[in-house]
Amino acid sequence: IKLTYEILEGTLPLANIIRSGQEHMVLNEMVNSQHGSTFNDQLDDLCFKMLITADQAIAYSPDPRSLKVYR
Predict the structure, then answer these.
(1) Which DSSP letter does residue 61 get?
(2) What are 5-11's contacts with CB under 8 Å, separation 24+?
(3) How far is CA 14 from CA 30, 31, 35, 37, 39, in A?
(4) For residue 56, what is the enclosing H or E element?
(5) Partner of 43 for a Cys bridge, out of 55, 56, 57, 58, CB 3.0 to 4.6 A?
(6) Is the Cβ–Cβ distance between 46 and 52 less than 8 Å?
(7) What pLDDT score does 35 carry?
(8) pTM score of the predicted model
(9) What is the pLDDT along the chain (71 residues), one digit of tens a residue?
């Protein structure tokens, strides 16, 4: 069993996003900053390390089309 997780470090831009009520922008901030790691980042990493298959990554991803292994 491999653990996959998301990490989001609290930053001033993130606080501003939440304060302004634009929670839909949180994932975008995670992807575009160096202060987070998305679930798909973790799935891509597990696939790259050959700990899971591309099919498994795609099956468990909340957004398969954004996986690097999907391309």
Answers:
(1) -
(2) 5/37, 5/39, 5/42, 6/30, 6/36, 6/37, 6/38, 6/39, 6/42, 7/36, 7/37, 8/35, 8/36, 9/35, 9/36, 11/35
(3) 9, 12, 10, 14, 18
(4) helix 54-60
(5) 57
(6) yes
(7) 62
(8) 0.65
(9) 567 777 777 888 888 988 999 888 887 777 777 666 788 888 999 999 999 999 999 999 988 998 987 66
Distances from the Cα of 21 to the Cα of 4, 38, 56, angstroms: 28, 21, 34
The pair of structure tokens assigned to 40 is 């798909």
Strand partners, 37: 7
pLDDT of 50 reads 92
Is the separation of the CB atoms in 28 and 17 below 8 Å? Answer: no
Write out the H or E segment, with its range, that includes residue 36: strand 36-37
